[in-house]
Design goal:
This protein is α/β, with parallel strands linked by helices and 417 residues long. Helix content is 44%, strand content 12%. The protein has one domain: Alpha-Beta Barrel (TIM Barrel). It has a 5-stranded parallel beta sheet, covered by helices on one side. The protein has 14 helices and 12 strands. Bound molecules: L-rhamnitol and zinc ion. Zinc ion binds next to loops.
Length: 417
């Protein structure tokens, strides 16, 4: 059976429950996902400081990691050859490219340090998103935007402002809005004496960064909270309540990373509440195994539930990015799997007879609702997925892995640490 024949049979199966598979495919093609550059090199960046700090960790030492901009770009290209659709790249400030051999510190970064990334994105019709880097730096060893040392806090405020200018430059050059996400690692290992003052300073620092005039149509500023990090287990300055209130009051975006909540909390459940009170919400989709471990996104229940909420509430209202860093497996496979899995989860949501399911809920017919939801799990989504891959000219099923194997043999295995 050809892919097309498989698809036609599946289309008929879905048609019987009122689902239009062609429409689902069109819709899926319109949803860009921001692929995080930092999976390609274990969040190392190009500043020559390979020590990751800030309570996050990439574990493993799988060979072949990208060591410079050329290699990272090559690897991103390889990944995008295997991922259906046109997407975005999420950069961190630590991925600045100083080609005149004249590096500057993070409080001096300028758009020109990201010119090569803009050229790269332009040639490929990709969008760019951005993140100031408030970790892996000597001035971040204690605290950043919440620091009690005014000189340190000033440095990081200036970094935030530089990044806002760079984000605007991305949006202008690419004629696509750029999301700039702020996450800081500030917190305390043990019981604080004063929870208020660091938060007061963080609020003031954010106010100062955002006092820089910028075009709100071009740059979506987002703030990302966290429950805890390694070494800062007892207190996180940028908590969920802090940022949710800050974002609401200042009309910026709240970013929800599904690794950043208590393990029984569900980010899928938060999306509808956020969207009742703001236009948009931003997401970092990841997989936490017992803690914010940043494992590769799978096609699992949590991801599917998040995707359902994205589709139910309007995919144009959710700014979607991935965030994980696994150094124990082929890094390009990690990207491809995470991206394809997120897309599969979106497709799964697009193939649900949403109206019918909602009707059952409203009629409080919970038996039939459960029956249908369970039976839908074995509907032939795979045939629709394969056809979607064929339409986009990327390999189907596990066939993509062969290309990674060749790339590993011909390119990655020749890289030495
Ligand atoms: C850390 C946050 C943050 C980072 C990236 C590298 O816990 O999730 O988003 O992962 O900025
Ligand atoms: Zn994150």
């Amino acid at each position: 059976m050809t892919t097309r024949e498989g698809y036609e049979t599946a289309r008929e199966v879905y048609r019987k429950i009122g689902v239009d598979t062609d429409a689902a495919i069109d819709e899926l093609n319109k949803i860009p996902i921001s692929m995080h550059c930092w999976q390609g090199d274990d969040v190392a960046g190009f500043e020559g400081n390979t020590k990751l700090s800030g309570g996050i960790q990439a574990t493993g030492n799988y060979p072949g990691k990208a060591r410079n901009p050329e290699e990272l770009m090559m690897d991103i290209d390889m990944a995008f050859r295997l991922i259906p659709g046109t997407h975005r790249i999420n950069l961190h400030a630590s991925y600045a490219i100083f080609d005149d051999g004249d590096p500057v510190d993070r409080d001096q970064l300028e758009p020109k340090h990201f010119k090569k990334w803009v050229e790269f994105a332009k040639e490929r019709n990709l969008g760019l998103d951005f993140n100031p880097t408030f970790f892996s730096h000597p001035k971040a060893s204690n605290a950043t935007l919440s620091s009690e040392e005014e000189e340190i806090r000033r440095f990081w405020i200036d970094h935030g402002k530089c990044c806002l200018r760079i984000s605007e430059y991305f949006a202008t050059e690419l004629s696509k809005p750029c999301t700039m996400n702020i996450w800081i690692p500030d917190g305390l290992k043990d019981i604080p004496a004063d929870r208020f003052s660091p938060r007061f300073r963080l609020k003031d620092s954010l106010d100062q960064i955002l006092s820089l005039p910028y075009d709100k149509e071009k740059v979506n500023v987002a703030v990302e909270s966290k429950v805890f990090g390694i070494g800062v287990e007892s207190y996180t300055v940028g908590s969920h309540e802090f940022y949710m209130n800050y974002a609401a009051k200042n009309n910026i975006l709240c970013l929800l990373d599904n690794g950043h909540y208590h393990p029984t909390e569900s980010v899928a459940d938060k999306i509808s509440s956020m969207l009742l009170f703001s236009d948009k919400v931003a997401l970092h989709v990841t997989r936490s195994v017992r803690w914010d471990s940043d494992h590769v996104v799978l096609y699992d229940e949590e991801t599917k539930e998040i995707a359902k909420e994205i589709i139910r509430n309007g995919s144009d209202r959710v700014i979607l990015a991935l965030d994980f860093f696994d150094a124990s497996i082929n890094r390009i496979s990690a990207w491809v799997l995470g991206m394809r899995n997120m897309q599969k989860a979106l497709l799964n949501a697009l193939l649900l007879p949403m109206d019918q399911l909602m009707k059952l809920q409203n009629a409080r017919n919970f038996t039939e609702l459960m029956v249908l939801q369970e039976e839908l799990k074995l509907y032939p989504i795979g045939d629709v997925w394969n056809y979607f891959c064929e339409l986009n000219g990327v390999p189907q099923r596990e066939e993509w892995y062969e290309e990674i194997r060749d790339y590993e043999r011909n390119v990655l295995s020749k890289r030495n640490e």
